[in-house]
Protein 1
Amino acid sequence: MTGVPASAAGGSGAKPVRGGKLGTAAVNQASLWNIANILTMVRLLLVPGFVLLLFHDGGYDPVWRSFAWAAFAIAMITDLFDGHLARAYNLVTDFGKIADPIADKAIMGAALVSLSVLGDLPWWITGVILARELGITLMRFWVIRHAVIPASRGGKLKTLAQGTAAGMYVLVLTGPLATLRFWVMMVAVVLTVVTGLDYVRQAVVLRRKGLAAERAAAAAERAAEAVEALQTPAGTAVGAGPAAGPAAGQAAEARDAAEAER
């Protein structure tokens, strides 16, 4: 949920060099079956398990909801670990790039929708959060040919707030804790909206810069083509001069011969 696919690691087994990164050879040997990708797959598998546990026995049994909370907490923790491993070892796989953000949004989306279905969480909160996540994902594709929108500190704080609030709603809480979870969720909603607007601003700026750079490159290319077009006819005329003399002389001789015959 950080905005940047984190689960990326490869499993070459090599030890990281100073700075926590591996060499190019190790990166090229990145394997699909590495610890970071496995954690991502575990998080994906936890999504249906979490939903089944949450809705077991009508969805209001405190014991089963505690089990559902445990599954949700494990899923959120794996997101932290696979991201750390991916950054520490600098190993990237295409599976990790695709599966990590899907797993992040799947577990959070499943929690929000399920809680709204049970009537524990207002649908407008679920709608705001899911609309923001979907919108930012589409916006990343909108600007991906120009630049990548980096994950911000606010985005990470938003993810933490969302996970904490959703986890508190999964548990059966009463009294002051029930009031507290409402305000934690409100903080999460505010962070969701504010960081979403910031991502929109970044996307617009990056796209403008990208388009400006493309226009500058196109103008430079047209200028180079124009210079080349101006130089080519001049070179052709100069080169054609020596050959033009014999040709003209042959044409004159042909005309003289024709006149003599007449």
Protein 2
Amino acid sequence: MRKIFKFIGAMLCLAWAAGACAAQGSLGLKHLKGGVYVVEDDYYAKENSAVYIGAEHVTVVGATWTPDTARELARQIRAVTDKPIAEVINPNYHTDRAGGNAYWKSIGARVVATRQTADEMSRGWDDIVAFTRQGFPDYPALPVSMPDQLFPGDFELQGGKVKAFHLGAAHTRDGIFVYFPEEKVLYGNCILKQELGNLHYADLNEYPKTLDRLALSGLDIDTIIAGHLDALHGPELIDHYRQLLKRQASDAAAPAR
């Protein structure tokens, strides 16, 4: 029953998103604070990524949906800085976070991820592309484009100004958070957003525990960039999503009427 519930919920989410996004889509890059920029992309389901402009180079967090959306993001980055785009983080293996990998590689950026994300991508890419195309038939049948550099676990870039870490399974088994300590900004990936969203690949047993660990991590957070829907939130988004999961679990456990 739980599998059926998760599948129906995912399909409803995709159907809603397909109706909500523009036919051609758009992508915007906006300065948030310090070196952090927010990317809002509604080519398919509304997704949010991040960009960090450091002293010598640029780090992109989330490859965006496709090589075409990645190309558009690169164009907008070049409009605000002439520093090279050196690295792109895949915060999980799904199409909204890794679909643009091939373009970033073509301009000389290295694509980085945890070994866990690379493993998930290697065995699950064709499945997630097929799943995406169920909701968005115009999504291209992209071949996998694997990360160039793998980290065994948590990692830092930009001299510690970009910190990526894994706290457990949630929206996917491999999803990471990315924290910008100087700006006190957390990129929540697909793990944090204002609505439950797609739970088809989620570990619903571990998801609340992962958010508990985040809440207890002691990170100094002023702003959270949510992975989908409205981009900017305060740290209260963590508890908000915990409550959504709690209600979902309660509803799933309730006897059918």
